[in-house]
């Protein structure tokens, strides 16, 4: 029997987090592919529409929302840990992940909402909306600079070891280096690639971090 069952849709960044955490702990995952246009199986199971949703096949526990699933996996299978051993460092890692989820995602989400699902042209936006896109794109660039600084003395976002900060951020930040797949139509990913782009000249440490984390088992690349 698999260790856990996970419901997913193609190209889901939040599902990628679970794949990376499960691979880190060498867990066997039974993947359930959900039709993005028919979320009934997910809704019936979890009472909401979004993936990932994880199920413990042993006792039927159902957990939705990637940060909650990651915490649940850590508690259920503590070794090897994704959190730093030092309690203060573990608390800082939680602050990083919370900010990444609640603050960092804001600008690219707002840009994707303004540009819409199909048309990626800035020209059709009002002057007000263009300014909003420019402001949010500038925020994304400023935060990329902070990630670059964070990696000055450490190989990973949470410190020396690979861990929860990398699992939380990599599925999103990787689009700064990697174009979305040809069949990935998610506008959010295109925004991350257009406005969150960086390279070895502009962000050498972040570029090396993407290359390093891409080699981890379960990492999308
Ligand atoms: N806070 C949730 C967000 C989950 C989420 O937004 N999932 C996306 C895929 S990455 C989804 O199901 N979106 C609905 C859709 O694409 O229709 C988490 O971290 O798991």
TrEMBL record:
Where in this chain does the record put each GST C-terminal domain?
86-221
The UniProt entry, under PANTHER family, shows: GLUTATHIONE S-TRANSFERASE OMEGA, PTHR43968
SUPFAM superfamilies named in the record: GST C-terminal domain-like (SSF47616), Thioredoxin-like (SSF52833)
User: What name does the UniProt record give this protein?
Assistant: Glutathione S-transferase family protein
The protein's matches in PROSITE patterns, at most eight in alphabetical order, are given as:
GST_CTER
Q: Which Pfam families match?
A: GST_C, GST_N_2
Q: Which domain of life is it from?
A: Bacteria
């Amino acid at each position: 029997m698999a260790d856990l069952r996970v419901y997913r849709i193609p190209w889901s960044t939040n599902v990628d987090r679970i794949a990376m955490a499960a691979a880190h702990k060498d867990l066997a995952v039974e993947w359930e592919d959900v039709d993005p246009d028919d979320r009934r199986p997910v809704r019936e199971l979890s009472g909401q529409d979004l993936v990932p949703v994880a199920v413990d096949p042993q006792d039927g526990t159902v957990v939705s929302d990637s940060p909650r699933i990651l915490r649940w996996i850590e508690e259920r299978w503590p070794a090897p840990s994704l959190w730093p051993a030092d309690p203060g460092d573990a608390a800082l890692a939680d602050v990083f992940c919370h900010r990444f989820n609640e603050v960092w995602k804001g600008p690219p989400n707002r840009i994707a909402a303004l540009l819409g699902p199909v048309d990626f042209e800035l020209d059709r936006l009002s002057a007000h909306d263009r300014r909003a896109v420019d402001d949010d794109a500038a925020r994304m660039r400023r935060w990329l600079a902070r990630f670059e600084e964070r990696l000055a003395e450490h190989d990973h976002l949470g410190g020396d070891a690979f861990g929860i900060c990398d699992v939380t951020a990599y599925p999103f930040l990787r689009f700064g280096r990697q174009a979305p797949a040809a069949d990935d139509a998610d506008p959010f990913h295109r925004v991350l690639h257009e406005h969150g782009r960086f390279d070895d000249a502009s962000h050498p440490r972040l570029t090396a971090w993407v290359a390093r984390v891409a080699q981890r088992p379960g990492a999308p690349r």
